[in-house]
Amino acid sequence: MITPHEPLPSPAVSLDLDLIRKHSIPGPRYTSYPPATKFTADQESYELEDAIDEDNRAGSGPISLYFHLPFCETRCWFCGCNTVITKRRASAGEYLDDLAREMRLTAARMDTSRPVTQIHFGGGTPTFFPPEELRRLGALISEIFPNREDGCEFSVEIDPRRLTLEHVEALRDIGANRASLGVQDTNPRVQLAIHRHQPHYMNERAFAWLRANGFRSINVDLIFGLPLQTPETFTKTIDDVLGLDPDRLSVFSYAHVPWIKPAQKIFDDREQLPDAEQKLAMFAAAHVKLTGAGYIDVGLDHFAKPGDELAIALRQGTLHRNFQGYSTRGGASLYSFGVSSISSTGDSYRQNLKTLEEWRAALDAGRLPTERGLRLSDEDLRRREIIMRLMCDRRLDFDALTRSLRVDFRKRYAAEIASLADLEADGIVVCTPDTVTVTALGAPLLRVVAMRFDPTLTAGATQHSRTI
Ligand code: SF4
């Protein structure tokens, strides 16, 4: 755990590109452990109904709700999300009818008096839904899960191209108080190459509407490694975005996985992708620019203003990680609704069917639309805790882990601790008889450290993107 109020590492000295070149390898982002690639379609093995029942025994704690709203009007060619491309507006209302069925089916097995601590609308494009449909979804949530906590963190992913003031007012009225804007890149040539035309005035307008309507934290998503990007153009994008004064930024490395996302093949055909060195230079430019502007490197791709809850949670050692990335709220059971969404309760993960047709057919048959999942073994649960401590605290305290995991940590994980020797020699971690600490230089390689504790990885596996 990082000591409260301990000064964070100086950003300007915390990048060593040679180190990143040497150690950056494909790996999971650890928004869950085991990663979703390990879920199984063997329904009996994850005991769906039992998992929900167990999570709702008397005295169970707060819940977090996720809604996957999958529609987009056009496809951005880099996109890795589960989306349905359509311009047919009626799709939204029909989808909401089915979402209501799924919510009621699930809620029938739940203690719905549990406090709701977090709500998230993800996509797709949540504002594909007309304002009146967003209001209907808000009313459904309040009706089915009536015990919303004061200060409930309610965030929405926003595509500034598909936003009106009426959307913002509807979101405000149903309780949304945080927004995450997909900007990606402000350069018109890059936008043309990725099939996403988004003049910067749209971003400025979205910020103005959201601020005027009381949204208290606004995040911007950027991606580096896209076609036609150069370190210079990406630096200009960052300058444009800094002009918006966001509270947080997520600066993702583009994951080129055309064998999973065929739309990305066009980037290979056109040979417009920057090479690894250019990509690294963009990462460095973003890091230097953002930390130079006073943002704190929260970990992986996340930056936040020092006064933002995320940066405070990092300082106080209370950071958590969930399917949306870093979070200040932990300990809640996650119930997710909509195609392909993933729920996480107790020792269970469950993912919904991925196509509209299959998801809807399951609901028509009166059953929960789950496709695959996982019941974590005791060993999985221990590994999950170790990896989450590394990703959130950047530190392992062997005595604390021995107590919380109820095993002799040093003995049980001796091989994993020993495997860190090369990372220690390169200054990525510091090992003592009682701790492992990721250094400031090692912070960009956090997930490489975590991978040493992950036995699910197979050598040479290519289903993950590179660390940077
Ligand atoms: S709008 Fe967002 S979810 Fe939709 S295709 Fe583009 S990046 Fe993907």
Describe this structure in words.
The chain contains 19 helices and 19 strands. It has helices at 17-23, 43-46, 48-55, 90-107, 131-144, 165-173, 188-194, 200-212, 231-242, 265-270, 276-292, 309-316, 356-364, 378-393, 398-405, 409-412, 414-418, 421-425, 446-451, and strands at residues 63-69, 71-72, 84-85, 116-123, 148-158, 178-184, 217-224, 248-253, 296-299, 302-304, 320-322, 325-327, 333-337, 342-345, 348-352, 370-375, 395-397, 429-431, 435-438. Strand 9 and strand 10 form a beta hairpin. 43% of the residues are buried. It has two domains: 1-33 and 378-457, Arc Repressor Mutant, subunit A, CATH 1.10.10; 34-336, tm_1862 like domain (pyruvate-formate lyase- activating enzyme). It is globular, with a radius of gyration of 22 Å. The chain is of the alpha/beta class. Helix 4 (90-107) runs parallel beside helix 5 (131-144) and helix 5 (131-144) runs parallel beside helix 6 (165-173).
